[in-house]
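Regression test attached.
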Amino acid sequence: MSSPSTQMRDEVVALLPRLRRFARTLTRDRSDADDVVQIAVERALVRHEQWRPGSRLDSWLFGIVRNAWIDEVRARSRRSAVFAPEEAGAQVGSTATDEDLDMRAIRNALFELPEDQRVVVSLVLIEGLSYQEAADALEIPMGTVTSRLARGRATLQTQLAQELAP
Amino acid sequence: MKIDEEILMAYADGELDTAARTTVETALREDPALAARVAAHRTLREQLSSAFASELDEPVPPHLLAAARGEPRITVARLDDARKRVHSAPRTNWSWPQWSAMAASVVFGVVIGQLTLRAPADDFYSNESGAIVAAGQLDHALTAALANDGSDHVKIGVSFRDRAGVYCRSFARLGEVSVTGLACRDGNTWRVDILERGAMQAEMGPGFRTAGSMVSPAVAAVIAARAEGDMLDRDAERAARERGWQ
């Protein structure tokens, strides 16, 4: 088996901030998010021949991160491990003391979405993937992407209309 | 004209082709309420982006950079983690299944090549019907030394009992090409289960003092997976040594 090219490794390094940002929409726990990214990156390098050079490396990696998180959730429920409870999650994920209340409301609203909708909203609206790129990353039909996106956005807009300052 | 919400959303996201875009734009000009909904979609995108913008600016932790570069990581801290966590399942950041497969294919291949090319009188190992057994200085260090002690040539890292109650010890052999490994008690001998070449860089400097702990994440993962209970402290090691590691 050949090793991943230097160019591919450089591109993976360059994508790390976005992979971490995406992982932080899957879990509020920062070390869990970094663990998931690490597993995903290691898997990606082992499976590097599955990526077609010229196709979107970020989409491919986002899909691996998403699957690594699904695997982690399953593994934990088998070990009956305890997740950081959602209330504690608000403190675990909190950033600098001058964090805008609006930002907190937006993040909380996102985390209240069901995970399937949250993943699509995160990939399209935060990571900037197109509908087709998100569909490819998640290996789901584009129609599923658009319907989850529409429902997620509708919920977010309703919630934030109530909570955010005009 | 009635425009489906998903079409409006796709328009706001720049997903429509020219023909569809033109249709929507005509409708927008005629209906301010539609234009407001498009604006709301765009605002939500901006709000989400700015709520997560700070994540992007954070410096990437070194262990992730190393993982992305496919570098082997050399940290004493990994085995200290093993000391604390051995009662619970191993942390997933060792990617145990991936490392075990790679370790099995890479490490043993190196060892076998090394031993067959060497002159038989090696002071560290002997090859006994296919198994690698500690000899000479290595056997002496495994039998007599406590963790972090050893001679200038061999240092012992951690000691533990595996799930069958067998004592195992990690070690590092210092020299031009460093070798680290794991040996387990087998009767009156130490069977060498893992040997890794070049897990440590020559430039480690002061790190040589605790060289015995400096195994790669692959070996750290093996230790975490095999160990039953905590790593032995010095008293436990002394007691085990008294009993000949039986």
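Expected vs. actual: identical. Chain A touches chain B through 50 residues (CB under 8 Å).
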